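Narrative summary of target 7.
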Amino acid sequence: MGGVLDGSVALVTGAGGGIGGATVAALLAAGAEVIATDIKAPSSGTLALAQDVTDEAGWATLAETIRQRWGRLDCLVNNAGIATISTIEENSLADWRRQMSVNVDSMLLSCKAMLPLLRESGKTRAGGASVVNLSSVGGIGGAPFMAAYCTSKGAVRLFSKSAALEFAALKYNIRVNSVHPGGIQTAMMEEIIDAYVRLGVASDYETARAGVDRQHPLGRWGQPEEIASGIVYLCSPGASFMTGSELVIDGGFTAP
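Modeled conformation, tokenized:
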């Protein structure tokens, strides 16, 4: 039986992480050919490559690789990201700038580099080409000890809206949406819990974990596959009337 993305070509950054790896698997299962990238080449994907998403020249090289092999790009999933966890007092300017470079600058670099390929897809693909940018519930409501991260994810949210409106005005037939996960069972989330203990917010791991659990009315963290399912939907023709939207997948998350 065919998948909803049969014949599609998709690029996923940050593909070596929990959500990124699950997204690659879900896109492949849906029938897409997937270019998977990360700072170290991921272990899965139709084509797996090492990529620094802050390197503009590297983006140009990647775009040329995709152009030569496929001639177009149907789905761009900007998932690469890092989290700086500290008090504002201890947040160095260097760490702040690195956070913005990976999480925000990469959005501009990716869209600029891939725009000709996405426009090529938009000429013929049902539902148009799709860009999916990974933000966070922290990019909507903020979170303590994560000012840099939440600022970066808020920027992703508004970049996505601006790009969506611009591409629609230019009639490129490229949709742009953002995804906002809550607490997801990933290495990054474990680092956040450990940081809460280090910063004295909680006495131990179990207490910190229980506190985060209580913020999710469903009573648990989400799984990477649950985010990947939403990304597949946004990439599919079934989401053809969605652009500039925020897909919140957060188990009913409530801020502290």
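The two ends are 45 Å apart (CA to CA).
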